[in-house]
């Protein structure tokens, strides 16, 4: 058993695991042994963490009494598994990153008196984190601000970003020339990519031919949409690269003159750290409207435009893209504003907070010592 161990807990999606990965890198560099508790979805990310433990977890989303009982029993089984794991590895702190798989490890840790920290990426607290907020030692806020019933616990750290994003941030924004190529990056995350598969090719078709000829498009599309999106651009004779996944997304973002995307917390954080102009279209069916709140935070700095999907017709999107293509000075100003809102040091600050919690310090004391950014 290591003398200095921290257990991370995260849901099995990239949105939860990427910031956990960034914190893990920081902690390992400081000499900590880092373990991850998550669900089976995270197996493809297992190589990013030195020790991965699968715990039982369930989503509490159904109103069916039988489903609720089953979910409750599964979560309680996860609490018992987590309690056993905590006894085995002896962590000085347990840090959660949201998603229902964080409930069993964090709840077990609070029952055992282990210091706990949750990181909330979004401007609106998610349901799992909300269920834990009253029990944990401290709350780190990505877009979450220090206000409301947990103001004393909240430390505004920002959202940790991957090392590839930090490296991409070293590439300065180069505004397009009036007649030169214009690089457009479009991606929709795991939810809502179909809207962009429909709307963006139609918007490109509505552009004046001279503007359309300048476009160099990189677009993420679901596997079932990939062929038709590629065909649409081929028919328009527009240079485009279409794929369900880009392993080098940070590099492609750095190469973009304009980003069109959803407004997940990781996406908005990466856009701001790299500093690129964006058109954000929040996913309209999110339960807590967290994407709208994330987008509003970046728009308030002047680093992005926000448009509701319900009002964003192909013609309207074409007008917006055309306006941006004709305004290189405005693009440069938006890029600078986005960059000013970025938090490239978020992983460092979150690691500082995790170490303070592990050492028995509370959020208030951490902030009083001048660690607030």
Structure in words:
- It contains 15 helices and 13 strands.
- With 373 residues, the chain is an alpha/beta fold.
- The chain folds into 2 domains: 5-161 and 344-371, Glycogen Phosphorylase B (Rossmann fold); 166-340, Glycogen Phosphorylase B (Rossmann fold).
- The chain has a 7-stranded parallel sheet with strand order 3-2-1-4-5-6-7, sandwiched between helices. The chain has a 6-stranded parallel sheet with strand order 10-9-8-11-12-13, with helices on both faces.
Write out the CATH superfamily name of the largest domain. Glycogen Phosphorylase B
E-strand count: 13
Described by strand count, sense and barrel closure, the largest sheet is:
7 strands, parallel
Order of helices and strands: EHEEHEHEHEEHEHHEHEHEHEHEHHHH
Point out poorly predicted stretches.
none
Shape: globular
List the domain count as a whole number: 2
Q: Strand pairing plus helix content: what structural class?
A: alpha/beta
Named CATH topology of the largest domain: Rossmann fold
Level of helix content? 40-55%
Query: Strands across the major sheet, in which order?
Result: 3-2-1-4-5-6-7
Mean pLDDT: 91
Under CATH at level 1, the class of the largest domain stands as Alpha Beta
Straight-line N-to-C gap = 34 Å
User: If classified by CATH, what would the architecture of the largest domain be?
Assistant: 3-Layer(aba) Sandwich
How large a portion of the residues is in β-strands, by DSSP E? Answer: 15-25%
- Helix tally equals 15
Rg, Cα atoms, Å: 22 Å
